[in-house]
Amino acid sequence: AVDYCMERLQQNRNVLFVMINNCTEAIPLSDIYFIDCSNNHAVMIYLAKNKIRTSCTYQECTHQLCNDIRFTECYHRVNVNMDKIKIMQDDTFLLMNGQTLPISRRKKNEVKLTYLNYLAER
Q1: How many Å apart are CA 76 and CA 120, to the nearest integer?
Q2: DSSP state, residue 72
Q3: Which of 26, 40, 114, 118 is 20 to 30 Å from the Cα of 68, by its Cα?
Q4: Of the candidates 48, 32, 58, 61, which has an alpha carbon nearest to the alpha carbon of residue 99?
Q5: Is-contact 43 35, C-beta < 8 A?
Q6: pLDDT string in tens for the chain (122-residue length)
Q7: Do residues 61 and 72 lie in contact, with contact meaning Cβ atoms separated by under 8 Å?
Q8: Are 72 and 115 in contact (CB under 8 A)?
Q9: Is 75 left (phi over 0), alpha (psi -120 to 50) or beta?
C-alpha cells in the first residue's frame, strides 16, 4: 500500500518541460489530457479546458513521457493520458472533458490491451 501511494505521489510531481513563447514552462503531467501533433507538425498539448502550442517537437515531448505509464500513443502522433479516459469505445476514446480521440486501426488491439492492463494495475 505504501509503494502504491508513493508511486501516485511521484506521478503528481512529474512535469513536461516545453518551450512556449521562447520560455521553458513546466506542465504537470496529471493536467495533460493528450498531446497531438497530427496537423502541420505543430505540437498541441490539450488540458481540461484549453490547449497550448509548443515549439518542442513531438519526439521531445514523448521522450519525456516514456517513463510515465499513464501515457500511450493511441493514434499516429496522438499520445493520451489514460487517467483522462472516461470510456473506451470500439474505435475511439471518450475523454473526461468530452473530447474524443481515435484509436489506430493498425494498433487497435495493442492500444486496447495497454489501456485494459493500465486499468487493472491502477
Answers
A1: 25
A2: E
A3: 40
A4: 48
A5: yes
A6: 656 555 554 554 589 999 999 899 999 999 999 999 977 778 999 999 899 999 999 999 999 998 899 999 999 999 999 999 999 999 999 999 999 999 999 999 999 999 999 999 98
A7: no
A8: yes
A9: beta
